[in-house]
Protein: Uroporphyrinogen-III synthase
Amino acid sequence: MTATRFSGETILVTRPVDQADTFVQQLRGQGANAISLSALSIQPPSSWHELDQQLSRLSEFDWLILTSANGVKFFIERLRSQGYSLQDIATVKIAVVGRKTAIFLQQKGLTPDFIPPQFISDSLVEHFPDRDHLNGAQILYPCLEDERRDLLITELSRLGAVVWDVPAYRSACPEDIEPDTLQALKQGIIDVVTFASPKTVRCFQQLLQAHQNKLGALPEQLLEKVAIASIGPLTSEACQEIFSRVDIQPNEYSLNGLTAALIQWAAARGSAFEAKQTRLPIN
Structure:
């Protein structure tokens, strides 16, 4: 990529506050005017009871599945806080979804044994190692409390594995929008809004509805001329359900892939504008 690929487009990033900075800086580094609206907060689970029960028998598991950096973070933090160490999962194979999750895991001192070719849970199930020899395999899956991946659990169970899906973290919808971001929405200067999870889509809609009086318009009116960008298929489903459209989705379901798709969208948008200008009559 060249140093600047955007032409000053204003892009709204809806990732949680502690995860937004990297993406915002990445977009700004490519020439975008990226602003943040934290439409999701990540918190510990309502109860650690289920995870703690499984931590006490780590040596019995064949696989550990981690589908996000949040899963890695909360699992390892709880592991250590309960007096265990990374050595206690030395014999357990680890499967992760996504390059970012793999990198974050390595930063914590562990190396994944399997990363699916596509960065979604469906691909993990489809390409899971030794699919024909999973009968009786014990799989620990620390997951998001309020959004467990039913397909992952169902399909691995169908192959004979015993999947222990236990809450390791939960997500919640914030109640406030930063004044500057609120003003940007109200003034209609945002060109595209980005989503990296289905829950973020739903929380963003709730935020717009809750601040409707301040914004002076219905959510659908505010987004009428705003492109909607989704990181992948599950998030796109939520966008279609709530906003009835998705304008941008990358081929690679990652933040890098989303950045590339946004650049492609911006280039096409600029070309269309230039073509329109050339067709204007000369007085």
Q: What stands out?
A: The domain at 43-172 is CATH 3.40.50.10090 (Rossmann fold). Residues 57 and 200 are 34 Å apart (CA to CA). Residues 273-283 have pLDDT under 50 and may be disordered.
